[in-house]
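Support reply, case 0932

Customer input (verbatim):
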Amino acid sequence: MEDTGLDLPVRATSPPSGTNTALLKSYTYTTPLPTSLETDQECILGVDEAGRGPVLGPMVYGICYCPLSKQNELADLGFADSKTLKEGERDSLLDVIMSRPDLIGWSVRVLSPMDISNSMLRKEKYNLNALAHDTTIQLIRETLASGVNLKEVHIMIYVDTVGPPETYQKKLENLFPSVTKIVVAKKADSKYPIVSAASICAKVTRDDVLRHWIFAETGIANTISRQFGSGYPSDPKTVAWLKSNIDPVFGYPNIVRFSWQTSKTLLETSGKIVRW
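Our regenerated output:
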């Protein structure tokens, strides 16, 4: 895997919720293999993300997998594209996923705003599509290495596309020649229940990280507003929060992606010029 500028993954040992530390480093959380995979020789695996567009908070990639023979059972659990569901519905579906370790395995890669900004602002340009591809590849590799890639197992992977699906699919096929089938498609999260399940894992994790966000900066936890809305640049609450919480010298706390044009513009218009 090419150098992404990100630190190696931290393997979390507890569910990615209710964290009591500031999110400065990206990390990966992974569950044990589904017990039903021990006797099943075919597996389906889906990948999706949450938080690609926001100027605030992490981007989260989720991967979900189960035995092929159980895909109808998975579909009956009611998974759908996380963007079409209400927050309570998404939370309930993650509870279902976590209650079925016999059926479903999953992982999330949580990319901190700081790591995203550091990657995109380095001298050698590294855009968001490349970051998304590399994160997906990393998650797939880690999942296969964890034991999903059993001897003679048939694995089918479904991925929600980033960029042209044909090009992306060919790239993954070249990287994972042992995988039986790879499908990269637009709106895969609404077409394939296994990708929908991955979207639930990613979205609920991102929402929970924002809900429990801990500011690493000293002395601002009890003074800075948490009314930052959805984090998207199109959200008036988010824009109002960015305008109200800019420091003319130091910019923003670490929840903000400094590499986003929204924050760049505000820093240029409201920040002080510093000469080194």
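We compared this against your earlier run and they match. Two observations from our side: The longest strand covers residues 42-50. DSSP finds nine helices and seven strands in the chain. Please reopen the case if you see a mismatch on your end.
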